[in-house]
Each structure stands twice: as structure tokens, then as C-alpha cells.
Amino acid sequence: MKRYEPPEGWVVQAYRFALDPSDVQVLGLRRNSGAARFVYNYMLGRVSAVKAQRAAEASYGVAEADLTPWQGWSLPELRRTWNEIKQWVAPWWAQCSKEAFNTGLANLSAALGNWHASRAGARKGRRMGFPRVKKKQGRRSVRFTTGAIRVEADYRHVVLPRLGRIRTHESTRKLARRVRAGTATILSATVTETAGRWFCSFQVAVGRTVGRPAHAPKAGLVVGVDAGIRHLAVLCTGEMVPNPAPLKAALNKLGKAQRRAARRVGPYDPATGRKQAPSHRWQRAQHAVARLHATVCAVRADSWHQLTTRLAQQFTTIVVEDLHVAGMMRNRKLARSLTDAAPATLRRHLGYKTGWYGSTLYVADRWYPSSKTCSACQTVKPKLSLAERMFHCTMCGLSLDRDVNAARNLAALVRHVDLELPGDAKTGRGAYVRPARPASAGGAAGREASRPVQPVNVARQQATANHESRLLTER
Ligand SMILES: [Zn+2]
Prior knowledge:
This is Transposase. In the C-terminal section; belongs to the transposase 35 family. Residues 210-331 form the Probable transposase IS891/IS1136/IS1341 domain. Residues 345-410 form the Cas12f1-like TNB domain. Keywords: DNA recombination, DNA-binding, Metal-binding, Transposition, Zinc. With 475 residues, the protein is an alpha+beta fold. The protein has three domains: 10-20 and 140-207, no CATH class; 37-119, no CATH class; 220-243 and 295-465, Nucleotidyltransferase, domain 5 (2-Layer Sandwich). The protein contains eleven helices and 15 strands. The protein has helices spanning 23-59, 75-89, 98-119, 173-181, 246-262, 280-314, 325-328, 335-341, 345-357, 402-420, 458-465; strands at residues 10-18, 141-144, 150-151, 157-160, 164-167, 184-194, 197-207, 220-227, 231-235, 240-242, 315-321, 360-364, 390-392, 399-401, 433-435. It has a six-stranded mixed beta sheet. A four-stranded antiparallel beta sheet has the order 1-7-6-2. It is globular and about 80 Å long. The model is unreliable at 419-432 and 437-475 (pLDDT under 50). The chain binds zinc ion. Zinc ion is lined by residues 374, 376-377, 379, 393, 395-396, 398. Zinc ion binds at residues 374, 376-377, 379, 393, 395-396, 398.
């Protein structure tokens, strides 16, 4: 499908607001998100049935021309078929927005496309399986791309097609003011239910004035940031940003809530393993678990947003490490704390926020020994265990916190590059610093797009960065 390209100098980003819909509106939201699920499942069944039927016919020796007609899975093909059959398979279709059916068909088209591309080897990343049926208990979501989509001037309501005016739980001022000033255009709106709370996320093209906002004080030129578990991040200035570890904080409550749910009548009979109708009390208990998880998620996201916004606004150049989190997750002792801190968020957030505020992000090579190098005399230690919290240099006698030492090394990388040769990314110490690739509009790296970060020397850096296939080494 053709991807939307925002005008020059504009970025695509999301504005998300919690909603306070009335009971009637909740029914409308559920009806439309349910329709999206229904059409997804129905057409998925049809695609796989046609596929199986054709395979069977071919095995009987039926001629190619006489086979059951193929069901294509491009969005126009799916839509055409759906419009022909909807009056029989979904006689209630007129009660829902056409956007609801479009949501389901577009998602199905993308899912089948991903599966096909993955099988053909045309898609990066993990192998994608054949799409599965969406369950009723799954996340409810529907996306509106046309029709009356807007935020009201009172800052407290959003308007969506077929659903009408819905009260928001929080102020929509930030978006409404931009729309009024003509520096924002709403492209689409997605309503989603998370742990019983409905959210409306607007996809917006925004004309940002790139640069440091007037209210943000200037803190310095270059900052090296070391993301970790003990602290969310350690800056080369010596500042240690505390890690709220929200999952760890909620573990007791979660255990309690899950034990309570386990004592109630759930969807399976533990004695026979048979399916059964879960009790209302079980559903309430499940809801409590979901709310705890939603809080954990919100606390984590907030800490990262506060830190990364501050960094992107107050520093001109930010240097981070390319973390191999997936590799570190294989360490079972670290896995839970790692997910709780989510250190890769640092780079993901800075990737687009540096574009918003006119700063530059540098990502140090994954194999650069930032922790093992002495920030004073550049001696590299052969070994540094994770238990050693202090860095002691045997050569020059430097002694400081290991994370501050690492952050200082990261900051020094860019000073080195900028001073020495503004065209060469290779520093004298065998580390490669490359500017971060910006996320594309609506791309997989995030819904947000950013202005391209000005590269130092793209061609040369890509050549040097192509050797990333070594195994993860202990730093
Ligand atoms: Zn030293």
C-alpha cells in the first residue's frame, strides 16, 4: 500500500488521549471493534478455505482453469469480496461504520502479506506464521481514516465517525491548539481498549519548528548516556536517573491478584481441562490483573519519556550504545529486570525526539567496550565482571562508578570524531560511531517519524557498520 508522505519539514506523530465514553458509546465502540474482528476472522477463514480447496482439486488433477477461483488478499480484492457477500454473512453490517470493516480487512491483508513475504525470504526479522483467528477476549481496536474526525475546541471532546462526540478523560489542548493554528492535520484516529479503559490515538502530521524550546534550559553540548538496570540511565555528568522498576514494585500485588483469579471459575475446568463459561467474579479478577499491568506499563513509559525529552531538548549531541537486548534477555537472571527497565527505549525515543528538537543522536558500535575502557587513560581492561560496580584503573589509578565511566567514554567518542575528522567515523580506539537512522513515517520502529539526522559520512559508515554479526561479548 502507498505510504503517506508528510509535506517537507512535517513529521507524523501520535497524540493519544484517554476517553470517558458513556455506556451507550461503549456499546458503539465495542460493536465497531467487534465488526473489525469479525470481518478479519471471516475473510481469513475464506482465504484459507479457498487455498485448501484449490490444493485438493489440484491433487485430483483438475485443470488449472477449472480450479475454484483464487481469493486474493490485497485490500481492494478483500474489500470487493466482502462487499459482495456481507449482506448474507453479516446482515447487521449497516449498524457499523464501513471503517470498522476496513480496519479488519486492512489488518488481514497486512498479516497475510507479512506471512507471504516472510516465507519468500523478502521480510526481515523473525519468521511470521500464518495469521491466526482473533479472539473475542483480545484487544479491541478500530481505526477511522475518513469522515468526521476531530478534536473539539473545548479541549474535552473528540468526534469520531458514527460514534459522535466522546468526552476525553484528559485535556486535548496540545493537539487542539495545533490544529487551530494550522500546524497539525489529523490523518486518522484509532480507538483501543486497554485494561477496561478506552483510548483514542490520533495519527497527526505536524509542522514542527525544529530546535530547543524556549522553556528548556541548555545543559551542555555532548552527553553520553549509559542505559542499565541498576539505574535507568547514567549520564557522563555523573547524574544517575533512578529506575522505578514498576514491575518489581507490583509483583506482590500481581501475585495476589492472580492467585485470587486462580481460585475462581475460569474458562477451563482444571479437573477435566474442558472449556467452560468463566464466572463474572473470574472476569472481575482478571480485570484487576490487567489494570496492574497497565499501571506498570504507564509508569515505565512515563519515566522514559521524561528522560528522553529532557536529553533531546537540553543537549546538542547525545551518544548512546547500540544494546543487544535480545541477546542479554537470554540470561535468565537478567531477563525480568531488563524487561522492567526496557533499556532499548532510550535509543528508540531519542531516534525521533532528536529530530524534533534539532539535536543529533550518535549510536556507538555494539562491540565498543565502553565499560572496560578507562575514561582517563583509555586502557582497556581484559575483563570486568557485572558485579564490579566501581571501575578501578590499574594504569592511572582512576576510580569511579563503572556506569559513569562508560557514559564518559561514550561522550568522548563524539568529541573525538568531531574534533579529528568530520567525515570519518572511525575513532582512534577502534570504535565506530554512526548517526542513528531515523524512523520512517509509520514505520516498524515506531509510529513516530523524525527528521533525518544529518549523517557525518553515510557511505563510509555503512561500510564500516556492516560487520555486526559477531556474537555478544560480556562487557
Ligand atoms: Zn586509566
